[in-house]
Protein: Deoxyribodipyrimidine photolyase
Amino acid sequence: KINIFWFRRDLRLEDNAGLYHALKSGLKVMPVFIFDTEILDQLQDKSDKRVDYIQQALANLQRDLIDLKSGLTVYHGKPLDIFKSLTEEFEIDTVFCNRDYEPQAIKRDQQVKDFLHKKDIAFSDCKDQVIFEKNEILKSDKSPYTVFTPYSKIWKEALQSIETFAPDFNNLVHISNPKDIPSLEDIGFKKTEIMFTKPSLDLKIIKTYGQYRDFPSLDHTSHLGVALRFGTISVRECVQFALKHNETWLNELIWREFFMQILFHFPYVVTHCFKKKYENIHWRNNEEEFKAWCEGKTGYPIVDAGMRELNTTGFMHNRVRMITASFLTKHLLIDWRWGEAYFAQKLLDYDLSANNGNWQWVAGTGCDATPYFRIFNPEEQTKKFDKELKYIKKWLPNYDQPKPLVDHRLARERALEAYKKALD
Ligand code: FAD
Structure:
């Protein structure tokens, strides 16, 4: 008999809780990964930077596993079908993995678990992606927090020590001729310009994060979003580093968990406003204006620069994410779900809970959101955070500024009215 370790959003060997428990179980462990067609088929753009990132991260894992005289077996299909054939090919005792809290993943795991159960195979999932998950930080009446500050206070109080998981790699199955992992072409995708490098924590950035993080031209944030998304870095390692060097950065990691537990407890936020009343907002949803926003042609340089950064690199600085999102929802009165979907297509660090939570936060429809009457003024934001226009010039070197789609003052009045009307 063997055990299986199923890699998903945890593409690393070090400090991997599920892998650690699998290797401790006493049986040999076969590592597998599944390119899930149910996810891949939803991606319209076949030059997807995330898929490229995953493929390269897997190649990296494969090299490390070969050094350990083992190997990663990579499949392409529906997880349930893959497990059906795995159970025919191998005598499996337990399938280990790390828990995923997104609604679609919960459903998938339940199906696999039910199937394995019928075959008398155990399914053992571990906490790895977060420090505190779903029901670990609750109010005294056992209901979830919906406001960040008290949540983060209790989160910090609950944090005693951080476990690390050092796996014993001697228990990996021995594989003498591991198969190559599938190329992007094999799974119907194309190469992008993304280069995977092993993520690391940069002391210089983290130490001075609080001072510089808000200035997009300085690009002084960790860029670890994608690594946290796909687990090429351990969140425990990040939190330990944050505790030692910078509490402001720690708070960002807590925001990540805050929105994850919101998604877990209130899965309706995927399609609906957290605050139900806001469903009454009468969005203008002008398609041409939406297209102009996507393409960075709104006539507001800071917004256009942000969208160009996103379209070119798959990244956008957090300050500019807030400005562009506010512009779409308030200035153009376009439904936050349109913007959310566009970011979801483009962001390398796209994460359902963080993207949804932040979009709703900016739009004022979410839990713990900015009050709806706070409307970013793009020019004021530029004066404050890109005074010398360095960021704008970087992303719009030959900018032929189009006529602004809308006048700021008019847009502000219009948004206030639409929101007020919805809430009356
Ligand atoms: P750093 O500033 O170095 O922060 C470290 C890590 O903390 C991030 O990598 C991320 O995991 C977490 N984090 C930081 N800020 C937030 C936040 N506000 N909410 C949740 N987690 C946070 N973040 C995503 O990870 N995925 C998304 O899809 C996403 N969409 C966003 C959409 C909008 C409209 C806005 C305003 C923000 C969004 N964010 C999202 C949050 C934030 O902008 C990014 O996490 C951050 O810019 C990523 O850069 P970094 O890795 O250098 O982060």
The mean pLDDT is 97. DSSP finds 19 helices and five strands in the chain. The first strand starts at residue 2 and ends at 7. The radius of gyration is 23 Å.
